[in-house]
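Hey Z.,

So I finally got round to the 2-(butylsulfanyl)adenosine thing we talked about over coffee. Here's the setup:
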Amino acid sequence: MKPSSEDKLRVKELTALIQIHSYRYHVLDEPEIKDSEYDRLFQKLLLLEEKFPELLAISSPTQRVGSKPASGFKKITHGSPMLSLENAFSVKDLKDFDRRVKERLTNTESLDYCCELKLDGVAVNLFYKKGKLDKAATRGDGSVGEDITHNIKTLPSVPLELLKGSNNKGIPNSLEVRGEVFIESSKFESINKTSKESGKKIFANPRNAAAGSLRQLDPKITASRPLKLFIHGYGSADSTDKNIPDNQYEVLQLFQSWGLPVNPETKVVRGIDECINYFLNIEGIRKKLAYEIDGVVYKVNRFNLQKKLGQVARAPRWAIARKFPAETGKTVVNSISFQVGRLGSITPVADLKPVKIGGVTISNASLHNFDEVNRLDVRKGDSVIVKRAGDVIPQITKVDNRNRIKRSSKTKPPKECPSCGSKLARDEGAIALRCLETQSCPAQLLEMIKHFVSRNAMNIEGLGEKILQQLIEKELIKDFAGLYELQERDLIQLEGFAFKSASNLINSIEGSKDTSLQRFIYALGIREVGETTALNLALNYSDVESLMESNREDLIEINDIGPVAADFIIEYFSNENSVDLITKLLSFGFKLSPPKKDTHPIFSGKTVVITGSFSSFSRNRLKEELINKGAKVTSSVSMKTNLLISGEKPGSKLTKASELGISVLTEQELIDLLN
Ligand code: IVH
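And the result:
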């Protein structure tokens, strides 16, 4: 049956009604109708769309939970870089900022600042095309992020279609807005409670919970998490820019009128003293807010002034974040235990009587090494002050030994590995103790395999710590090659597995065999071989076999590899066990693609040096890009240097390059060349 013109009109009406009521509820927090009435409208629209699929629009409010993307997360390049913020920790830092801004603008009068809350969430970039949500990305490295469109669509506060505001300011054809996705503190606690009850992963803080929920392949999982969004800026818009006001505050208000959620505490103030008052005010209401903030952000309000001020490295000169001081709490050390790392290093950890600090329950703190234990003289049973700052691992800052138990004894370093019981050794000249039983220590094995399966290595989803622990305990795996010999029947005997989940996991292990050479090298967990070194190795050796035959001299020649890393690589490949392990792994039929050498005539075979800072990319990214283009990137300018890439504040390398007559490229020239 074809829809009548009445049906068409009804679908339009219902869509508009749902959009407006959803906006009133999720963005303005001023619902006008009862939830039951809203549900009724929604059901009506669903029914009509089911009956007449041709009337179903992509941006219909019924389309929030779609299907999983076909393959992982695609990459999205932001229209303009997503910058970070400089931090201020005191009134003096803020006054210095204001003075610097005024000096640059040769301005003596007080400036208008847009004051905003600094949400502790996950930065996202949303792209609207002709008013409809087109795609969404995470921040990534600031230039390129991950495509999370399918997940962002599930957030009720994200408009799938912008509302035409009443102020006649047209919505640009293309618009890029930036914001922060977060979870309210109380919702975070209930997620963790449910997760704990069902034996699932617990998130350390609301920020991790938001990030984890957003980075899900299955949008149904994201939809089940109470994620919210506040927009705090805009990336770019097309030529209809003239419709956009000339200042930050009014832009945010305009966005709000289009249905985008903007934080209600946003304000414009004049002069730095009022900025300081804003901070004091927010500090006062912080505890009453439903979500966590880690400070406030001040932005020079007018865009023309922002443009004049520009940016340094990856932070604008026109904005600053004033951070709250780290929060502290008092608790008791239940015991001091020792963790064994992937490469055998032993880290002392204080197991604490759980204490709530800034909304997060803290039950342990890293003591880093024995120098730190001695410096603090921390002992079992001591009362301690614990500091928690944002994402950082909690620290013990002070031991209150006034009530120390009389017979408490000094914490001594362990003599034996807490996992395998073997004697511990100390690296030459180092403080850290190390367990040398690389092959047979269960803790090292667990950490090694955790690294092997991790996201940036073999990226095997569904192999969490608890499962790996069981696989090792039941001796179902003895090394990471063992993962590829697992069968459904092995997994079904483990806690929490059914046939379907076992077969899914086997498939994802199988799927990991098709990967890049650099991920495989990184996954091996060779000492001193991080992701960049793994990439450099992959660029220089076309397969694992030739890497295994490398010699020290050749390795040192490679960019980024020094004598220490070269020695560890040689040591690793001279070890019979490693060779056996790799041979076994390769026998499973891995397809390891070498990095694409996207060589460029200007860079191929050239020795290039980078100096200064860049606004469109990080130095690491630039380095990778240059290596990809066939260059050898070295750290100092010499007669061998062919080219210097010079960013802001270049320093002595630029002087030396001009003395030696070496060609210099600026950031803009480089971008033009690459484009
Ligand atoms: S503006 C122009 N405003 O903080 C600079 N960022 O440290 C770009 N953040 O990655 C950021 N609340 O995710 C801005 N009101 C706010 C913010 C905010 C939280 C996050 C943002 C950014 C990080 C920078």
